[in-house]
Every structure is written in structure tokens, then in C-alpha cells.
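Input chain follows. Return C-alpha cells only.
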Amino acid sequence: MLNTIRGKITSGIILISFTILIIINIFIWKIFDINLQNFILNDMEKIKSIVHYELERQTFNTGLVLTAYNRNNLWSIMNTANLQYDAFLSIEYAMDDYIQFAGEIIDKDSMDEILNDGDNESSLLYIHNKDNKYFATYSYPVYLNDRFIGTFVFQKDYIDQYNNHKSLMARIIVIQSLLFIVMIMVNYIWLKKSTYSLNTLLEGISSIGEGEFSNKLEAKSNDEVAIIIKHFNKMQDKIASQMEHLQQEKVKIEKLEQSTRNFFNYASHEMKTPITSIGGYAQLLSQGKIDEETKARAYERIITESNRMNKMVQNMLIIAKGKEIEEDHHEYINLNELLKQLSKEYELILNKEKIEVDLVEDNVVIYGCEEEIRAIILNLLDNAIKYSVDGKIWLSLNIDKNAYIMVENKTLPLPEKIQNNLFDPFVKYNYGDEKQASSGLGLYICKELVKKNRGEIFYSINEDKISFIVELPIESDKQIGL
């Protein structure tokens, strides 16, 4: 507890308060002691005045001369004072050292001490606190007509007054103690309430240290710590958001790294086949002892594998470019005009392959990279031409909320193992046609380029027809300023 702010403040308050109470009680006791001494002095002066007055009155008729008769009367006066004030009274006469007293002496040593210390000129008052007794010894010289006649000595027990002072002091201390305990309890409760926000903040910081960012801290006050807690909650939300974003980015990077590793593993594997074939046929041709038919077949195979390798390298360069450049030059593109232009550029191919083009009449405008959109359409057409079984291909453009470009052709049945992953890299099937130079990257490139242009691509297989559909967002007239 002493290591906490609440414990340190409480300990400090206890120490300071206890010190102040001790100092106050010392002052109170000093005041009581002074008051008691003043009371004793006044009491002794009162006894002295009465006895001295009676002494003068008894000796007045004899010219203030002390005689045996007067001394007897003085004893009677001293005896009356003893009974009235419960005090021991004595007088030691100077003329014959005769001691006359009334009452019971309390402490003879104290009486002898004060008589020895007296100088027959001044009064002395000794207050004693010993042997569970609290008493006073008082002496003063007696003069009649400027003539020293003796020394009065009084002793009186003041233990009751002293005990009353002690009892009052004890009650004061008890009350102070109770108030002190109440003050400490109130102070502790107040500190506990005041430092609740600090404890809450400490728990929040500890939870962050343990990687927990979802604990919302509650501020139950309006002080500076509560303001810190509010900012702490905002900071925690930002950290949690950033951590989540970093986690998502980490997953993306891990997927990208895995995809890149897989891609280049597939690429190295796929490139081995044409390289091995070219090397094998080249070695066969170098021997020179083969017939013309085998030689022609070797040349044809070398050309086919070279074309396949060339196309694979080109496609890999396109993919590498797409990964390195996040965003190419984008512009507004009229898909109607682009498809018409592609139809004219590839008119011979379209006529040969019997590609039917069906375009909407309205302008369909998108925002993207024209070079990449061209590459998407041409890759889909190239794929359709390559795998069409009857030479017929359908190219259409439709609009709903977005633009839809569809390329459709009839195809031979696809193996089940590749039907659901045609967009993966190096997925291909040549139906046993060795002359097909496919890299298996065309559809993968289409998917990556469509994604870069904020679109989606998907396909459907319905009996003997396969349809590839590219969905791209349409820009409104207001957006393009038409």
C-alpha cells in the first residue's frame, strides 16, 4: 500500500497529523501546568494572607510584639487554617528556633530543603511530583515592625487537582484520537474515490501491455485524470484500429508472399517442360542421323515450345508489371467505342472465327486504364478462340447498374479438377493438342487486371458452353461532366 499514491498520501497525512497533535497536546499540557501552578500560588498566597492578617491582629495590642500568649493564639489560627484548607502549616521562630505547626506534614525533606534555601528576604514555592504525590511547599519570612520574627512554611497536597488535569487531558487525547481516526477514514475513502480514476487508468495501461485493446475505461469524475482517461480511450481505439489494419496487412503480405512463391515455383516448373523439349529435340537434330519426317516433327515441336515459352515470358512480364505498379494512368473509357475499335483491328480474326459482336446503343463509360482493359478483352478472346470447338464466339456488352462484358464459346468438357480454379496461374488443358502454346497465365492476368480496375470477373459453365463475364463500374454523366 505504501507504494501507491493513496498509501503515500495517507501515510503523509497520518505522520503530519500525529506530529501536530503531539505538539498541540504539549502546549495544552503546558497551559494546564501553568494554570495549576498559578492556582497553587494563589491558594498559598490566600493561606499566607489569612495567617499573616491574624498574626498582626493578635499582636496589635502589644505593639506588634510577639509574646508567648501571641504564639499560642497563632497556633489556634494555624489550626483553623489547617482544618479549612487541609494544609500543613508551620512557623520557625527566629528568636529561639521554636517550631510551631498544625496538620500532618507531607514531606519533611522538602520542608527542610526550602528552609535551607530561604534567605529570610523572599518567598519560595516548590512544587513536587514524586511517589504518586503532587504537592507544594511554600515558605515566606514574617516581619513585624520591620523585625524578622520567623519563617512560615506551608505544605498542601494537590493530587486531586493534578489528577483532574490529567483526566481532562486524557479525555482531550481520546477525543482527538477519535477525531483523528475519523479523519483518516474519511481521508482514505476520499482518496480511494479520488484515485479510482488513476487505478482505472493503470488497469487500462496494464491491459494494453498485455495486448488487450478492447477494454473501455470508465471515468467517474470530472478531474484531469478523467480527461486523460477519455483521451486514453481514443488512443486505445486508434491503436486497436491500427493493430487490426496491420494484422490485415500482415495477412495480405503473407498471402502475397505465398502467392509469389507459388507463382514462381509454378513458373520454374512450367518453364522446365519447353526447355527440356527444346533441348531434347535440338540434341536429336545435332546427331544428324534422323529421317526427314522426324526432323520436320522436331522442328515443329521446337517452334511450338519456343512460342509457348515466349508467351509465358511475356505474360510473366505483364504480371510483374502489375505487381510493381500500383496504379497506371487512368482515364474515362467508352466501352462501346473500345469494343468497336477492337472489332475492326481484329476483323480478319473475327470473320475467320465467326465472332458475333452484340453492343448496346448507349454510351457506356468507365474509369480505368485503357491498355489494361484492352489486354483483358484480348486475353479472353484469345482464350475463346483457342478452346472453341465450332469456331463461334459471342462478344457482348450489357449494362445494369454496372457494365458487363461477356465472352462466350462452346468447349469440350473440362476436367473436374480445374473447373473451379481456372483463374489460378498455370492452369491449362490442351485436350491432347501438342501444338497449343498455352502458358496457363492468360486468365490469371485477366483477374489481376480486372481487380486493378475496380471490377470483378467470373465464369459459368453450362453444358458445352463457357461464359466469362467482366463487371466494371459505370461512371455517371455527372461524374464525367457530360
